[in-house]
Amino acid sequence: MRRLKHRLPVRLRHHWKVVAACGAFxxxxxxxxxxxxxxxxxxxxxxxxxxxxxxxxxxxxDLFDLSKPHEITxxxxxxxxxxxxxxYWEDGEKDYVExxxxxxxxHLDSVGIRLKGNSTLGSLTRDGEAAPRGFGGRGDDxxxxxxxxxxGAAPPGGGQRPGGGFRAGGMGSLKAEEPETLPWLISFDEYxxxxxxxxxxxxxxxxxxxxxxxxxxNEAVALSLVAQSGEPSQRFTFSTFTVNDRPSVTxxxxxxxxxxxxxxxxxxxxxxxxxxxxxxxxxxxxxxxYQDDFxxxxxxGSQDLQPVIxxxxxxxxxxxxxxxxxxxxxxxxxxxxxxxALQNLLLNFDDMSGPGKNYYLYxxxxxxxxxxxxxxxxxxxxxxxxxxxxxxxxxxxxxxAGPGGQPGDGQPPEGFQPPEGFQPPDGFQPPEGFQPPEGxxxxxxxxxxxxxxxxxxxADAGLKKxxxxxxxxxxxxxxxxxxxxxxxxxxxxxxxAAGANASTVDSEAGSLRSLIENRTKSLxxxxxxxxx
Length: 532
Fold this sequence. Notes:
alpha+beta; 2 domains; seven-stranded mixed barrel; four-stranded antiparallel sheet
């Protein structure tokens, strides 16, 4: 016993009574509340960030300087890559791989890269084997959605509509053997704490396949038009992208909404990311019950999810009169009207009410109001040119395939395979023997389409007038003015400068110009636009 006593540290022997008392208290605490749920509560009004920037690498040129060519090279161990794929195939987890990165000549060791996307990865194969659970099966995904998987069926004409735009159809196959084409999230501080690159913690390398587009021109044009509208957008660039010794490709690189992005938004506030599994429904007062709905991006430790919970509960419980009168106290109504109008004008099926639930909420701590922030536009500019201001967007723009982007008979293209949760438009005739999934659920078990806030906003006569006024203004600013057509020309030039295949760029740009021309003409005579 004496020998054991002298093996204990001196400080522990001197203060054994305190240690014993703490142990006794802990035992009593476990006995009393061991089975109780502990919910995090933050009452502090502190607004400072918890994360400390230790190193901010300036680089040689602004990554999002569109006037300069950019190069990104990623190097990692093939064994680490295989382990990452094993994990994804086994349980859908997207683990990071430690890699070395070179951006525009600047070397960064030990960055983290991981797969990014939800339904985007629905067509991913490895040695010819599809990832398990298919479209929307990754209920734990934190990235939101992406282009739906149509079973690999390629649409007629390479995905383009006759006369312009992109037709609904297969998004193309993603192959694990071609990592240069995969969607990636690059994290600068995953393995090196406190490191930033030009103030950023993350950037997103967008999918190299889309709704008939292989260049990402439709997403880049949509991003630039959102920025021109005055609403929050994300900066982007085109870059050559090389992985290990694989061939270089041209990829769209987009600013990822991180802490730096949150700080760039108007005022001082908290940014929340909607998850693909989000439902925007009241689940009680415990913040942990909303972990499948939202992720908090910044101000962790000084702010929490309570403002979002309050908004969800109010939207779900308010009477129509209360909603009409009280929305402006909680949401920046003018900004929200522009957000909703933009999604329609840009033919973005997969917005806050789409299957991917692609949006962010920004809570301004000064005004105590929310702004909805656009995110993930790789389905934009790919629908029906004749979609009106009060029409519901549809996957790939069904009413499909009329000449020049005009409405057709609503039939799917040959070889079309509806994804899990697909809700067909009026007149759609499914393939023989097709059985839709029970409940029409989308990723993570949430509803395939719909968002209570957006639906209630458009259902109120007074608020709908605000929406239609915003729609008229944005139509004039983005379409009638020629801004959308100009954005196509500018983006085409950037793609070619970044090394993209010129004939492919010209083909996709031509389709997009035709869609914009048809959309401009179609909306010009719509009563919402012509109304004084």
